[in-house]
């Protein structure tokens, strides 16, 4: 009986069935961090572009 318990725990420790899902989750998290960084970096530039556009539209009669 003790040997069966030992074999069960050994098989449980060596089980890698959830490994692929964890790898996909890490990849998705990395992509999300990159997307947030890019959007944050572009926010100032986009704001300046839209400000120039609205200022140009206000000058036209």
Sum this structure up briefly.
With 61 residues, the chain is mainly alpha-helical. It contains two helices and no strands.
**Helix count from the secondary structure assignment:** 2
Low-confidence stretches: none
- Form type: rod-shaped
Strand content: under 5%
Biggest sheet character: none
- Give the radius of gyration: 27 Å
Succession of helices and strands? HH
Secondary-structure content class:
mainly alpha
Q: What is the average per-residue confidence, as pLDDT, rounded to a whole number?
A: 83
What can you see in these coordinates?
The chain has 61 residues and is an all-alpha fold.
Walk me through the topology:
Elements: H1 2-13, H2 19-59
